[in-house]
Write a structure and sequence with these properties.
It is a single chain. This protein is an alpha+beta fold. A 5-stranded antiparallel beta sheet has the order 2-1-10-9-8, sandwiched between helices. Strands 3, 4, 5, 6 and 7 form a 5-stranded mixed beta sheet that branches. Helices cover 33% and strands 16% of the residues. It folds into 2 domains: 223 residues, 3-Layer(aba) Sandwich (Beta-lactamase); 154 residues, D-tyrosyl-trna(Tyr) Deacylase, Chain: A, CATH 3.50.80. Helix 8 crosses helix 9. The termini are far apart. A hairpin with a 5-residue loop joins strand 9 and strand 10. The protein contains 13 helices and 10 strands. It is elongated and about 85 Å long.
Length: 429
């Protein structure tokens, strides 16, 4: 896929009613201590908030629910069908974010390497082949693409070429071979039975991708990445040809060049602000490969479930992006997670990875042009007839509120103004 065509794709903010579940929301605070809910008489502000949210949820239908919690005063402010399990869509990425931070740490990065089998001879001739070994970095690509797609944050293949030149290599007698063996070969997710899903992913999944999973003709993403490396090498006066298929790097290969991804904290922002499904499933496969021994979405989803279970929460997690409509979670579970991580290192990184509501990313249309714009951060979740939003608000009353708003039934066009009314009500509390 040409870079121009790929940039033209719009990444979908992703993913039936569900059964109510017991409310999981009332036992622990963000530090692990217990804070039973105080059953105080509702204040006038709470009554106004409840009335505004009830009114906004009226057109949303009975397959919608919400929970709003005051993190400052440790009290639940509003709940409506909060235990109902619904498709979270891309709100699922909150679970993926927390699991990745817990497993890798915010400073973790992933390294794409060039490894050689052979030796360097006279006049800069590499007698043997080079392997471009993927480490699951979704930002690997060329500088122009990285600037446009990843806001300048990415691993530039030109840096690998420069290192090969500095090592004295001027010609490769063998081939440049892509190695995507860290993950399985499935280019898509469970929502498409693991077939390619370009409308949602904007590319194909692989442990070795170039320019957001671009592929060409019969070349897989890994083989396409090797081809692009060979082309850049030739542009730098290093003679090289690429193999049309991928292969695992032999154990006897040795390191010649390496380039690192941005730290995980930056990768999460690149994932959450535009709701990038390819980033989400790449991180999910990363967790499966590193901690479950299988670079698959299923293995990564198992690991995400294990992490979220440590918070006493048990949503149905089948992928990392939320595209699978069989994923299930409740507003209560999502709001509980936001409450439990608030004030922790994990919570601070997650909050900083989310777009400002009404300002940027997938939340830019929600409450845009109102006094509430820029006062909340949130993760959207959008599928056909599913329009969700969850995050944090700094309210006019100088309180920090966690919220989870799930709407199923109305079209996205109808639901966005409803979410705008809800955010305004929450932020003005």
């Amino acid at each position: 896929m040409a870079v121009g065509g790929l940039l033209a794709l719009v990444l979908a903010g992703c993913g039936g009613g569900g059964r109510p579940r017991p409310d999981v929301f009332a036992t622990q605070d963000a530090t692990g201590g217990t804070h039973p809910h105080h059953q105080q008489r509702p204040s006038p502000a709470m009554r106004r908030l409840a009335a505004a949210l009830q009114s906004a949820f009226g057109p949303a239908g009975r397959q919608s629910g919400a929970l709003v919690y005051d993190l400052t005063d440790h009290q639940q402010l509003f709940a409506l069908r909060a235990g109902m399990r619904l498709p979270p869509a891309s709100v699922e990425k909150l679970y993926t974010t927390v699991a990745a931070l817990k497993q890798f740490g915010s400073g973790a990065s992933f390294h794409t390497t060039v490894q050689g089998v052979g030796h360097l001879g006279a006049k800069g001739v590499w007698h043997g082949s080079l392997y471009l070994r993927g480490d699951g970095d979704p930002t690997l690509g060329d500088g122009v693409f990285i600037k446009a797609w990843d806001l300048g944050n990415g691993a530039n293949v030109a840096d690998l070429v420069a290192q090969l030149g500095a090592a004295g290599i001027r010609r490769v007698t063998g081939q440049v071979i892509g190695d995507a063996s860290l993950f399985d070969a499935a280019p898509g997710g469970p929502a498409t039975n693991y077939a390619p899903d370009l409308p949602d992913f904007g590319g194909q999944l692989s442990a070795l991708t170039y320019d957001h999973g671009a592929a060409m003709n019969r070349l897989s993403p890994g083989a396409f990445a090797a081809r692009q490396l060979a082309l850049l090498m030739r542009a730098a006066h290093i003679q090289a040809t690429a193999a049309p298929t991928t292969s695992k790097t032999p154990d006897r290969a040795h390191l010649l060049a390496t380039v690192a991804s941005p730290p995980l904290s930056v990768l999460l922002k690149l994932m959450n602000v535009p709701s990038d499904d390819l980033f989400a499933e790449t991180l999910t496969k990363q967790m499966g490969a590193r901690f479950e021994g299988r670079g698959t979405i299923a293995a990564g989803a198992d690991l995400i479930r294990q992490v979220i279970d440590t918070y006493g929460l048990r949503p149905t997690i089948l992928d990392g992006s939320g595209l699978d409509r069989s994923d299930r979670s409740s507003p209560s579970e999502v709001a509980a997670l936001l409450r439990l991580i608030w004030g922790t290192g994990t919570g601070r990184v997650l909050e900083s990875s989310l777009p400002l509501v009404g300002v940027n990313g997938t939340t830019r249309r929600i409450a845009a042009g109102t006094p509430s714009a820029g006062q909340c951060v949130g993760k959207t979740g959008t599928l056909n007839t599913v329009t969700n939003l969850a995050g944090y608000c700094h309210s006019r009353g100088r309180r920090t509120l966690a919220f989870a708003l799930f709407i199923e039934g109305p079209t996205n066009t109808v639901a966005i103004p409803l979410l705008s009314r809800m955010i305004e009500a929450i932020q003005t509390y």
